[in-house]
Amino acid sequence: MSIRKTLRTLFACMVLQVGVLSGVPMRPEQIRELMFQMSSPKVAHVAPEEDHDGRVDDHT
Q1: What's the whole-model pTM score?
Q2: What 3 state SS string does the chain have?
Q3: Rounded Cα gap, residues 36 and 20, in angstroms
């Protein structure tokens, strides 16, 4: 696991812990869903590039 991902997970857990200590209600199912979303890969949508004339370059 990369250091960046480890730090992000640690930060999220610390924020959740502060919420617990301050009395913010959060169901275990919500916590599981949040941790699942953090560990799942993300899909990025990339817009087609435009040239300086404003035309879309579709690389075909």
Answers
A1: 0.48
A2: CCHHHHHHHHHHHHHHHHHHHHCCCCCHHHHHHHHHHHHCCCCCCCCCCECCCCCECCCC
A3: 19
